[in-house]
């Protein structure tokens, strides 16, 4: 039996396999435990293994590659279209075989252990910030019930909570220990976020690609390390616009026939990366406004950002600048050149 392609529906403890021949006809289906799964591929001849890019997929991809197999990780949202009838583990494994035949579906690069570790640090930082925000909102809502108004903003809000806690008549005695514990928890979360950010900054200084990205306005250590670990291989994007589209920063299209309709950004990419780029673009735009008020010279990128803000408004200009920063990241990384804010002007002059 010529078994060349194996589709695997991953799970925590059970793995559904569909084994196909050279013509993508499924010849065998089996369901294995974790131990059986490891033994199966240890004795199986080298094959093309297809999996969804989901939880634990990169770990198993590295393991199977070490055993001599060729691994392809496919985006889960594209594999879903190949599921026939009801959704089952067997149907998902069979859909992977069908999706493997489509040359338009580009596989996801397999991440190394270090890249996944850095990505997990980013996710832990994001969760810490979310928990901190939730605790601050609880403090604001709880104290409002007793007539204590907390101003907007994390720093100002926490200072107001401490002042209310110091005033014995402002907060009921029954609630004081809970508020004190919550303030201590927020302090621990802020300390943990600071530790993670310092570690990410240290790792960024050791990576040549990340150091090159730091020269781009709006790209700091967090954005550089996050982009480095998420993209892995920039050569899989034909241009910077493809990278911006992958991040969900290009317009969503509703077109038919000769009518082309462009709407808001698609938001189909990584939310975390898109958020970092948007915050970076906002910082660049604010700095450009300050420089313009002070009469300092602006490069072509910042001048374009100010002109866009005047024409379309601040928020739309921020998103447009985030799109342009993503395209600059792609061009800088792909062509291995340093950032130049007047690139088009310099090229035309040459």
Features:
350 residues, 14 helices, 5-stranded mixed beta sheet, globular
Q: What's this entry about, in short?
A:
This protein has about 350 residues and is an alpha/beta fold. About 55% of the residues lie in helices and about 10% in strands. The protein is built from 14 helices and seven strands.
Give the DSSP E fraction (strand runs of 2 or more residues): 5-15%
- Report strand order across the widest sheet: 3-2-1-4-5
Structural class: alpha/beta
Q: In this structure, how is the largest beta sheet organized?
A: 5 strands, mixed
User: Uncertain spans, ≥5 residues at pLDDT below 50?
Assistant: none
- The succession of helices and strands, N to C, reads EEEHEHEHHHHHHHHEEHHHH
End-to-end C-alpha gap: 62 Å
Summed up, the helix count is: 14
Shape: globular
Mean pLDDT over the full residue set: 92
Q: Tell me the radius of gyration.
A: 25 Å
The portion of residues assigned to helices is 55-70%
* Strand tally: 7
């Amino acid at each position: 039996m010529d078994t060349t392609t194996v589709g695997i529906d991953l799970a925590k403890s059970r793995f559904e396999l569909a084994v196909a021949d050279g013509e993508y006809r499924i010849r065998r289906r089996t369901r294995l435990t974790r131990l059986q799964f490891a033994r199966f591929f240890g004795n199986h001849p080298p094959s093309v293994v297809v999996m969804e890019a989901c939880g634990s997929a990169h770990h198993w991809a590295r393991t199977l590659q070490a055993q001599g197999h060729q691994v392809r990780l496919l985006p889960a949202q594209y594999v879903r279209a190949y599921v026939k009838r009801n959704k089952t583990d067997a149907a998902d494994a069979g859909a992977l075989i069908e999706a493997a035949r489509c040359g338009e579906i580009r596989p996801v690069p397999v991440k190394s252990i270090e890249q996944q570790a850095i990505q997990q640090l980013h996710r832990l930082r994001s969760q810490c910030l979310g928990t901190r925000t939730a605790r601050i909102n609880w403090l604001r809502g709880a104290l409002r019930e007793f007539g204590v108004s907390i101003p907007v903003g994390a720093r100002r809000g926490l200072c107001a909570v401490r002042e209310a806690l110091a005033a014995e008549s402002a907060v009921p005695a029954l609630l004081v220990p809970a508020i004190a514990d919550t303030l201590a928890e927020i302090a621990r979360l802020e300390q943990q976020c600071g530790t993670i950010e310092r570690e990410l900054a240290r790792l960024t200084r050791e990576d040549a690609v990340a150091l090159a990205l730091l020269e781009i306005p709006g790209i700091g250590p967090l954005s550089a390390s996050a982009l480095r670990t998420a993209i892995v291989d920039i050569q899989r994007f034909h241009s910077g616009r493809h990278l911006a589209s992958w991040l969900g920063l290009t317009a969503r299209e509703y077109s038919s026939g000769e009518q082309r309709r462009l709407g808001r950004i698609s938001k189909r990419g990584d939310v975390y990366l898109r958020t970092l780029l948007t915050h970076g673009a906002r910082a660049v735009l604010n700095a450009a406004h300050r420089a313009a008020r002070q009469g300092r010279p602006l490069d072509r990128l910042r001048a374009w950002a100010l002109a866009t803000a005047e024409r379309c408004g601040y928020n739309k200009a921020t998103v447009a600048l985030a799109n342009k920063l993503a395209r600059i990241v792609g061009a800088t990384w792909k062509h291995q050149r340093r950032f130049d804010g007047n690139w088009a002007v310099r090229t035309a002059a040459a």
